[in-house]
């Protein structure tokens, strides 16, 4: 049965409301960053394909996906990030990298991608696609080229990151600062993966909201880099699409 125009509008309205509520919930849970003059990030790179993996050390099916993310992290033009969620912690092993913020970010994607539920492992490409690794190879160049294409080019100087004027935004964009570690190794002693030594790449340790952006010309002073890697992600709030990314690793 085909939905009527009224039903479609009601569905879209409910979805936008849910996205707004999840976004507000997520923003309330992260700490704002102070706009201060800091040293420029070294070896800055722009607009990689951002691949997020939602994973957990308590999830039996996650280790193969963690290994895939490790391989993706070595590809040029890709920023692979591991977000450890906390909803597996109750079954016997508490993931030391799991955060409520990662779980809330995955719930945000559930709404913008119109998924029925959240699960692990789950890959998100470019903020607006969630391929099934059982049916699609994440190393498929057609898949890579067709997802998450950045539409905005940021520049930088010694003061910070420069945003150009644009009228192409369909709504407000969120500015996210993500800090991540290079590698971790953990001996799992309880839960579904008990007895295994698991290795992880680019584990996200902090997510901070730097504010909204509405397409105006703007200078964002360099945020402090506190870990191995730091990334600024500009993301369409209603659709999830990642519009631009600037990152550094060393």
What does this 3D model show about the protein?
The structure is a single chain. By secondary structure, the protein is α+β, with helices and mostly antiparallel strands. It has four helices and 13 strands. The chain has helices spanning 5-29, 62-72, 100-112, 141-146; strands at residues 45-46, 49-55, 78-84, 122-125, 155-156, 160-163, 173-180, 183-187, 197-201, 204-213, 218-221, 229-236, 242-249. The strands form four sheets. Strands 1-13-12-7-10 form a five-stranded antiparallel β-sheet, with no helix packed on it. The chain is globular and about 50 Å long.
List the keywords.
250 residues; alpha+beta; 5-stranded antiparallel sheet; 3-stranded mixed sheet; 4 helices; 13 strands; globular
Could you provide a short overview of the structure?
The chain has 250 residues and is α+β, with helices and mostly antiparallel strands. It has helices at residues 5-29, 62-72, 100-112, 141-146; strands at residues 45-46, 49-55, 78-84, 122-125, 155-156, 160-163, 173-180, 183-187, 197-201, 204-213, 218-221, 229-236, 242-249.
């Amino acid at each position: 049965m085909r939905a009527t125009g009224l039903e479609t509008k009601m569905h879209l309205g409910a979805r936008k409301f849910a996205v707004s509520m999840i976004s507000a919930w997520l923003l309330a849970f992260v700490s704002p960053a102070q706009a201060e003059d800091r040293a420029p990030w070294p070896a800055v790179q722009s607009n990689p394909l951002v691949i997020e993996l939602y994973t957990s050390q308590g999830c039996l099916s996650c280790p193969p996906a963690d290994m895939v993310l490790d391989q993706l992290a070595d590809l040029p033009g890709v920023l692979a990030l591991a977000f450890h969620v906390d909803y597996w912690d109750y079954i016997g092993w508490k993931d030391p990298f799991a955060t409520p913020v990662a779980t809330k970010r995955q719930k945000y994607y559930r709404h913008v991608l119109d998924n029925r539920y959240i699960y692990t492992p789950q890959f998100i490409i470019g903020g607006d696609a969630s391929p099934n690794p059982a049916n699609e190879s994440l190393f498929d160049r057609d898949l890579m080229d067709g997802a998450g294409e950045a539409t905005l080019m940021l520049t930088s100087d010694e003061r910070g990151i420069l945003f150009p004027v644009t009228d192409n935004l369909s709504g407000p964009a969120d500015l996210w600062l993500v800090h991540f570690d290079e590698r971790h190794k953990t001996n799992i002693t309880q839960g579904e993966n008990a007895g295994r030594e698991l290795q992880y790449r680019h584990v996200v340790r902090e997510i901070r909201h730097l504010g909204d952006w509405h397409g105006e010309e703007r200078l964002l002073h360099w945020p402090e880099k506190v870990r191995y890697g730091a990334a600024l992600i500009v993301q369409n709030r209603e659709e999830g699409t990642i519009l631009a990314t600037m990152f550094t690793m060393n």
